[in-house]
What does this fold into?
Amino acid sequence: MKKALVFGLVVLMAVVFAAPAMAHEGRRVGDYEISVGWRAEPAFVGLVNGPEVLITSHDDRTDSPELQAQLEALEVDLQVTVMFGDEEITLALEPASPLYTTYETSGYVHYVADLIPMLPGDYQFQVTGTIGDVEVDELFDSADGTFSSIAPITDFMFPSAASADIATLLARIAELEARIAELEAAGS
It folds into this structure.
């Protein structure tokens, strides 16, 4: 029984920690494969997140130290235009800190930009620039379902914001009623 529980927890953890890498759209661009999505998926309104790009080679040696060194030596100059409805913002993609990488990136180089999505719905990422000598101009759309659309944060808030507001109002009303009672008693 204990072994089954431990095995189940290990499998669950593997799925949870592998999820960010799987919730991206991958495309071949020249000799490279780029995978694009949100850094944290599922993605929610009001939480720090942002686009991320993973770059690898189509080389068969994806986990070799030589390939990793070649990838890390690449001149990468990418930016991402994030679009929502008729609004857009262009952000520079910077090398990700290993502290923020939640999954194995051997065979990849990892780039990110910070963003706090403020409305739920579908977002588009237009990735442009260069990877080495390869020109990049690719559009990725969360509406395609290959990476997360932004969900309302209320989906997992507890207690709900409405409950918190009501509790604050009720406490304020009780405080005012107590002050009124004091003033009435002092006036008698």
Notes: The CA atoms of residues 66 and 141 lie 33 Å apart. The domain at 2-153 is CATH 2.60.40.3340 (Immunoglobulin-like). The longest strand covers residues 76-84.
